[in-house]
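Q: Is it fine to ask for two folds in a single conversation?
A: Yes, each is treated on its own. Send the first.
Q: Here.
A: Result:
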Amino acid sequence: MTGREEEYVRSCITDGFVSSVGPFVTRFEKEVAAIVGSAHAVATVNGTAALHLALLACGVMPGDAVLVPTYTFIATANAVRYCGAEPVFFDCNPETLCMDGAHVRSYFATRCVRKADGAIMDRETGRRVAAVLPVHVFGQPADLAAIVDAATSYGVPVVEDAAGAMGSRYDGRHVGLFGRVGCFSFNGNKIVTCGGGGAVVTNDERIATLVRHLSTQAKRSGIAYDHDAVGFNYRLTNIQAALGTAQLEQLDAKVERKRAIAARYRAHFASSASVRCLGVEQRGRANAWLMTVRVDPDTREGLLAALACDGIEARPAYIPLHTLPMYQMSPTFALEHATRIAPGCVNLPCSADLTDALVDRVAERVQMYCNERVVSSQHRSA
């Protein structure tokens, strides 16, 4: 919190605009839209709410199917279930950890049929395929060209889960608008934060209007308690928007620092046989929100414990969603890499205020522990 956060929040308290109405909400939406390049942005209470509203606005209904990567935060799949729909879990690209466009293309070609009314049906489940929901995992842009091309050719909308990707680009454009709608999160751990918050971005005025309407309990205009649908209390507060506005002013600097931290880690691990950095930048430019490495799965828990003993907080990455109890009965497609890769993934410290010396300390400690494990394993084999 190194910008004008305190000043802006104090002004909310002074002016009395502390709830979901106030000048900072409007300002925050305009600035998010300007950064992303969208015609519309609607602020929400969190990224999960943004996903829920976006899916509803794109016509996802109970009984439908939505294509979801298995390697992501659980909110992605939960938002599908909130709509009464069912996720179809897809594998991840082993380098980017994101949904693989080739798998999406294969799914439509081999498992789907177009009905007389134009609906795309999954032959195995009998469900209508209502949306594709790629995730830019840890800020790494997904294979958008292939995913959007495959979905569009079948008339299925793409909703981008860009929760952790504010500041990430693909083919020179900010992520979030390659599909029909995009969703961002401004949770406390994101590259810029409102404490908690989210946003839906789109160039479709109808979708923006519907999202805004549903986010405010589907209340008609005016002061009367007049509602025309089942809506949600999903609006961002002015205080949160004030915090987020101050954070957005620092976005470019934060992204550049994050990328510098990631580059420093990569330099440390470039010649390592036991620590591998994930993420590639062919057509995308990641914001480097989180720094993810792969180690031997048998090494990970010991590494995390050793780092914790040194006062270094690192975390295991996601558990594939299709393995969790509430989703074990959900349909899947082309699962090969996620369950193999996930047990060895670790997110290392990478806050924008991390000094080079601290990055070096973390990297050296990770390398030291992993090297010791390799030597110990060789001794046991001998």
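Q: Second one now.
A: Result:
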Amino acid sequence: MNASRPLVLIVDDNATNLDLLVNTLKTEYRLGIAKNGPNALEYAAKHRPGLVLLDIMMPEMDGYEVCTRLKANPKTTAIPIIFITAMSETVNKTRGFELGAVDYITKPFHAAEVKARIQTHLSLEEMRRQLESQNVLLEHQVAQKTAEIRDMLDASIRSMALMAEIRDPYTAGHQQRVAQLACTIAGKMGLTTTTIEGIRIAGILHDVGKIRIPVSILSRSGRLLDAELEMLKIHSQVSFDILKNIPFPWPVAQIVLQHHERLDGSGYPQGLTGEEIMLEARILAVADVMEANSSFRPYRPARGIEAALTRLAQKKGKQYDADAVTACQELFAQDGFKFDSVSEDPDALR
């Protein structure tokens, strides 16, 4: 027997009908036979026929019930079912279609009609399988290309961040650590994965505008003069100008622009207050202040985690978002958060 031929299951309790169908189909198809509903269900689940010819009027379990159970079983739900019946009322046919049957053959049937209908639905099912297989392949290819594009985006983002850090080696790793903490704060606050990804990108790039700041200011060991401090403040706007035309799926440029804004309006560059500041920027601000105050800077030694947390607590709800500060405090006090290790060696990026 040629195993490559489609398998058709015939379900009928009438021996005459079975003989007629077997003689009609045996040269073109492999055939399974079941004389009642329970046997049909067992056979279909075990052998997965390509199509079922199903009589309606049978003892124990009628064809409607068999069809319902076949469609309810994940193993057999996709098998096309053609009802064979002497009933010609529209209501009977409608019920069968509602249950998931694909066609009807009315008794007494003609061999040519039976063959034609079976061939049609087997061809349609084969086309469906091929289309499903093609869709799976396309989905895989899209996922692969998306991953490649994401890797390219990440590489580009990190290269942009590195350009700023090369000019300011004393804060090497700052942007990555800020991004790490900001994402963790956002996760603790229950933000969506999509929003957190936008915060991650903004965190990595939030200081890219420092590429416009003179190295003499970035690496100065003493307290900055007022004029130098004003020069340093332009980096948020410069970062925005660099990023604003990049079609990120998140408002990265706006988040970066606002990360030095403060709730009381004392921040820069726009002097925004309260909820005028994007939530993502408020979270990034807390992470930025926390990392900057705990780490070494050319003009002061590292203050440490506790000192940075104290500074945040003093201005919680005044300059810094209360929920973001609370989340940050809990991360360090309860969750054991630690910044990823990044080299602090000034020569590491040279």
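Q: Anything structural to flag on that second result?
A: Two points. The chain has two domains: 7-133, 168-333. Residues 168-333 form a domain with the Hypothetical protein af1432 fold (CATH 1.10.3210.10).
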